[in-house]
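The instructor's notes for this session suggest beginning with a concrete chain rather than abstract definitions. Hand out the sequence below and ask the class to guess, before any prediction is shown, which regions might be ordered.
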Amino acid sequence: MLKPRAEVYSLKSYHPPLGGRQGLRLDFNENTTGCSPRVLQKLRNLTSDELARYPEREPAEAVVANHLRINAEEILLANGTDEAIHLICETYLEPGDEAMIVVPTFAMYEIYAAATGARVVSVQADQDFAFPAEALLARVIERTRLIAVANPNNPTGAMASQADLLRVAKAAPDAALLVDEAYFEFCGETLMREWHELPNLFVTRTFSKAYGLAGLRIGVLCGNPEQMSLVRRVSSPYNLNSVALACLPDALADESYIRSYVADVLRGRNRLEEMLRDRGIKYWPSRANFVLMHFGPQNAAFIAAMRARRILVRDRSRDPGCAGCVRITLGSAEHNERLFAALPEVLEEIAPAAKVPR
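After discussion, reveal the predicted structure:
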């Protein structure tokens, strides 16, 4: 009887609740209005000949490298950040190695690392989800070969300081430090180019969030040129489709569209945090395009009441340390206004007066 590797049986399954997502999508941290109009125009102008050819990744990589102000040898376009994580795990992890993650965080770090046969070590975030630098450093051993950090983190919105991340990279030179900057556009802080001094550092970015290209699945992995040449050996030469590669330059070129959208998100994030603060609802200050908040036993009622108003929010109760928590994405000014109009009504409906958890 055909059997998979033993590690496959013990892998956790990640099943995002994608079905029935009708309404205002504030649950998956997507761009709520979609991609730039320039991308849509490019899609309309694609020819059958372009779709008939195998995709050529290098021209788009040159455009992305110029956009990021790094060399083309320092980047690899990937099928979303997910593939970038997968490639790092396949390049550097072996059975018996250790991979470290800070929880709560993005589920795919653990899944891809465990699939290689490595042991995944989870380090719980400090109070209020602060980055646990000392606890993480204390767990680094000779077998530590990967440390994955989302920065800002999902689902908390918290950030690790650049100083702490550089300390980690220096303390574990035999481990790949993967810093996932999926929400860079909403915080503006990056470790890009630090691999010139620290060749074990890798940075990922995605075009699924601010750029509104989640359906095209485009991400980028960046790092030291020598290390990136090794990662490229693991990657398929045709990992991205022709449509995604054709659209990416137009998405990057429309800088005013991204600036406008990010500005809407930041204004909305500030206003949402202010509304929660005024109502005594526990939340965690965010550097991303979402806010994590705590409703305790009223969590399910809040989610249902929002869905009844055709506004989707994300239940994060199953994440470590997040019992009773909901994550809400911010988007365009128009969509944010719908959220702000519904929020007081829902809070009154589920917890009149002073019964909202503090």
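Then share the key points. DSSP finds 13 helices and 13 strands in the chain. The two ends are 56 Å apart (CA to CA).
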